[in-house]
Structures are given as C-alpha cells and as structure tokens.
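Reopening this ticket.

The earlier resolution said the output was attached, but the attachment link was broken on my side. Pasting everything inline this time so it's all in one place.
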Amino acid sequence: MRIQLGIDVFLESRVDKVAGLRVGLLACPSSVDGDLRGAVERLHRHPAVNLVALFGPEHGIRGDAQAGSPVASATDPLTKLPVYSLYGETHTPTAEMLRGLEAIIIDLQDAGVRFYTFLATALYVMRAAKAAGVGVILLDRPAPIGGDRLEGPILDAAYTSFVGPYPLPIRYGMTLGEVAHLVNELDIGCDLSVIGMRGWSRALWYDETELPFVPSSPNLPTLDAVSLYPGTCLIEGTNLSEGRGTTRPFEYIGAPWIDAEALVDQLNDLSLPGLRFRPVYFVPTFSKHQGELCAGAHLYVNDRDKFRPVSAMLRVLQLLKRRYPNEFAWRQPWAKGARPPIDLLWGSDRLRNCIDSDEPVDSLIESWQSGLREFERMRAEYLLYK
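Inline output:
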C-alpha cells in the first residue's frame, strides 16, 4: 500500500472539516502531497477550502531565506494571499494575524529533533490558536529518521527557548502530529485535530517510504544530513563550522586551525558505532569562517541502526576540546544576558560543564537514561501509529 500523507487523506476524505470556514495555512517548501504538488496550491484551488491567509516558518513559505535570516510578512505572488511571517518580528501569530480565521491548518515536515524550529513554530501556533478560539488541523508527515528511536536528555524547563520549546529528548521518535497531540493534551488544550497518514509504520526511515524527499530547510538538503543533525547541530554551539555555506551542511565539521588528517585518525580510533570520518577541506560561503579555508572531518553514517548521533557527538566534542584546548571555544550568547547557545541546544548546562571539566561522557550519557525511559512510557499513550 502506498503511504498517504496527512494532506492526501485530508483532501480525499476529511476536507469537510473546513467546509464554510475561513482557513489559514502554515506551510513550507516540503509541504507537498505524494505527487509533489504543493499544499498551498492544492488548498488554494480546492473548491471546498476557503484559504484566506498563509503563515511561514523559518526559511519562509517558499524556502528562500537562509537559516537565522528574518523573514518579512508579504503577499504571496502566486496566490495573492497575505503571508504572515513567524520568523521575523514575531515567532507567534498575533491576534491581528488570526483575526477572522476559524481554522488554521499546519502542514510542516518535522525533523524529529527538539531543536529544529518547525516544532516550536507549530506549538506556538497552537497556543495562539487556543487564545484566539481558532481550531487547529495538523496534517501529519513521516518522522524522517524513524519513529521508534529516542536519544538525549530531556530539556530542563528552565532552558525553554525557540530551539527547546518543551521538555522532550533531543530525538523524540514521534511524528509532528504525535508530539503535537502529546503537548496539547498535557499543556496547551487547543481544539486540535490530527489528520494521520495511512500506511506509515514507526520503523520506516524516509527513504523507505517511497515518498519523494523534499528538503524543508536549505541546510538539511539530504536524509544523510538529517540523520546526523541530532548530533552535529551541537557544533552550532561551538566556534567550529557545522558546514553551513557548503554543499554538505551538518555533514562537514571544521575550522581554520584544525589538522584534518590527524583529527580524522583520532576520530576513527574512537570506533564510534555506525560512523566513519574522512579528512575534508572547505571554504564556507556564509556563516562561521566565511571565506576562510577550513579543515576538518566529513561524517559518514555507515550503519544507521547502530549509530547514535547524540552520544557520538559528545565524544567528538570531548576529543576536540582535548586536542585544541586553546582554540576550541563555545559560541557566545546571541544577546546580553542570554544563555550560551550550546546550553539552549542541549537543554541544560550539563554538556558544557562536562566537556569543560573533562569528565567522562559515559556518565553524562547514563544521566539521561532514567528520564528517557520515563518519557518513553509517557509517550506511548500519544502514539498514533503502533
């Protein structure tokens, strides 16, 4: 049976849920149906859908904005509908943006990783919809790196941020629909309907679904990058490049002061399960070390069943700190009085303190296991796909 995405199911048999309603749509470039037709166009042209407004997450509704670049609200040139940016002056829909809407549809391809900003955007929309009395319909999509694997610490609520919007592990093994269902039941309480997929099972990786892979971010262009992202995104919290501005973001790591061959020899000597490294040289066209020759490592996942990206990156960070004690540094806070980016990504200060104190990372890995088991038991109640 061919997998049907939430949008396919909605348009085939559930479109009556918005009959006669004024509807908004939160979407991105990967918001397509199983035949690569865009959700914006399909809903705009559907005679039973009165689509009156669009909402865009990070990178914009058409995906033309780079990571971290503010996106302005505008008019969509194709549909002539207003596009309200949720990655510019505000991350949360304002009352004015929602005025006149009776329902808002969310159709985003999540990464299954806590610090991927589409998760926060979806939850912020749900909170705003609750306050405005607007119903939410979420069209579900696959968990790209599988829906049966969990890893990493549970976010400390004191470190809640746009890259950590709720106490979840880094890799939570749920679709966006499932995690929205969980957070809504436990915290938000909006009028939420999740339109589930048909034919998807938890153990499937995206390349096993036979669905076309459409990047939802310009810096996660391949499933290889998404597979590494739960670990290599932590490099964002350091002064190393995570490969932004190259053809292999989140697959390359490096800096001008690294000896690539020597580093890769040490990394491969770690014998990290499912992961190998090769020396690489690159010049980022933007972001950290723009225009500078960087040396470092290209990461290859050769056994994704054994690979544990979060645990692996802890060992990589510790090796980098030990090998380059004078050059390696944590990235400075984005604003005065803010927490260091690595703490926001990790969800506490424990990773930074562990690496700075040169403590065994095994103890840090062990420290999150009980919380992860508790979350896994709690999460079971909210799984839509068994």
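Reporter confirms the inline version is readable. The two ends are 17 Å apart (CA to CA). The chain has two domains: 6-215+378-382, 223-348.
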